[in-house]
Design brief:
The protein has 147 residues and is mainly α. Helix content is 78%, strand content 0%.
Length: 147
């Protein structure tokens, strides 16, 4: 390692002073620069959480649309229906759609958009939610909110 020469040591404070003066003359400040850097660093986290919220919203919409289309198309077998919901969930990063309350509320919303009767709705609730009281309640809430 080389020792600084007296000339190099004398130029360092002058260079630093010149850099600060140049920056001040051009209107920048260190606090603004550090704030900008801070925003740049944290923005991926904000966009990631915004993306997650957006995916959740899309998921709810897609599940409601899927349920509505399923009923409007005359229904079908429960296994195909469940596979379709699982595919939608996987696309949005939801690993356990059956444990996700948005799934059940959105199914109710989709059914509520149709012209089915209360009796037909009850049949879908029994078929899809089974004996799970929480799932049934979420479907009823979604159904009522869409009516």
């Amino acid at each position: 390692m080389t020792q600084p020469t007296p000339l190099r040591s004398a130029l360092l404070p002058i260079s630093l002073f010149a850099l600060i003066a140049l920056c001040a003359a051009s209107g920048c400040s260190f606090s603004a620069s550090s704030e900008s850097i801070s925003n740049s660093i944290s923005s991926p986290f904000r966009s990631s959480s915004a993306s997650s919220a957006s995916d959740a919203s899309r998921y709810r919409q897609e599940v409601a649309d899927y349920a509505q289309a399923f009923v409007a198309g005359g229904g079908g077998d429960a296994l195909s229906f469940q596979r379709g919901i699982a595919t939608l969930a996987e696309k949005r990063g939801i690993s356990d759609w059956q444990a996700n309350s948005d799934t059940w509320t959105s199914l109710g919303v989709g059914l509520g958009r149709t012209k089915i009767s209360e009796a037909a709705f009850t049949g879908y609730v029994e078929s899809w939610a089974g004996d799970d009281a929480t799932r049934r309640d979420l479907m009823r809430q979604g159904f009522k909110s869409a009516r």
